[in-house]
Design a protein that fits this description.
- This protein has seven helices and six strands; from the N terminus they run βααβαβαβααββα.
- By secondary structure, it is an alpha/beta fold.
- The protein has a single domain, classed as Undecaprenyl pyrophosphate synthetase.
- α1 packs across α2.
- The protein starts with 6 loop residues before the first strand and ends in a 20-residue tail after the last helix.
- Bound molecules: farnesyl diphosphate.
- The site of farnesyl diphosphate (FPP) has 20 residues, from α1, α2, β2 and α3.
- Farnesyl diphosphate binds next to α1, α2, β2 and α3.
Length: about 240
């Protein structure tokens, strides 16, 4: 029996290197990366993956040259303008995670509008991590919890893992089953730190703009061949009961 891949997280990396290798500007690399986003989302839907989280812009990315940040903002804006109508048709609900207060008022309005417009499309979920980092998310969650304690809504001793998760940007969303990173780097760069506790990790040297359906299939294949036990045993040596994850 194949394991079900319900939630895929992707660290899209390598746009810059893809462009440089072709003598193109980094802008061209990001544009090509945006096309891959559309292609890969379609492929995920075809394969019945219900949740996809894309790491599109980290809190660290704000430190890139202003011109590159502007290019990325333009790409997000036009993606949110154009492709979202398409996503809606495909029954995809959009969520944003990250510190949206750092975006312009226009982008923040767009985010809100899209979240509201796609609420109710519950079959597929696209979670865009924008101005996101796992530590920043955790700090913002702790701050919110602290405020609830201060106002008497919460008691510190009531804080369970479940309650803590409800303060995260991903509240209500399932944890990722598989995290893919393109471009050969083997690190998580502050992505979904809390949520990835049991995620399988898959690293591929393919640069994001080149990431194809068959690369996606290779990642899914590798995931399905792994055994996930969540710290338990697959079969009890005493044959009393079977614990499966
Ligand atoms: C990493 O490549 C990629 C980014 C920082 C931006 C990701 C953005 C996109 C894929 C395009 C737009 C996305 C959406 C959702 C419309 P890099 O620039 O760090 O590449 P490098 O490491 O080779 O320089």
């Amino acid at each position: 029996m194949h394991k079900k891949l319900n939630h895929l997280g992707i660290i899209m990396d390598g746009n810059g290197r893809w462009a440089t290798a072709r003598g193109l500007s980094r802008t061209e690399g990001h544009k090509a990366g945006a096309k891959t986003v559309t292609r890969v989302l379609e492929a995920c839907q075809k394969r019945g993956i219900h949740y996809v989280t894309l790491y599109a812009f980290s809190t660290e990315n704000w430190k890139r040259p202003a011109a590159e940040v502007a290019v990325l903002m333009d790409l997000f804006k036009s993606y949110l303008d154009k492709d979202v109508a398409e996503l809606q048709k495909k029954d995809i609900r959009i969520h944003f995670i990250g510190d949206r207060t750092r975006f312009t008022a226009e982008i923040q309005r767009q985010m809100k509008r899209i979240e509201e417009a796609t609420r109710g499309d519950e079959t597929y979920h696209l979670i865009l991590a924008l101005s996101y980092s796992g530590r920043d998310e955790l700090v913002r969650a702790m701050r919110r919890f602290g405020k609830d304690v201060q106002s008497g809504l919460r008691n510190p001793d009531d804080l369970t893992e479940e309650a803590a998760a409800s303060y995260l940007d991903t509240a209500g969303l399932p944890d990722p089953d598989l995290i893919v990173r393109t471009s050969g780097e083997q690190r998580l760069s502050n992505f979904l730190l809390w949520q990835m506790a049991y995620a399988e990790l898959y690293f591929t040297p393919v640069l994001w703009p080149d990431f194809s359906e068959s690369d996606l299939d290779a990642a899914i294949d590798s995931f399905q061949k792994r055994e996930r036990r969540f710290g338990t045993v697959t079969e009890s040596p005493f044959k009393t009961e079977t614990t499966v994850s």
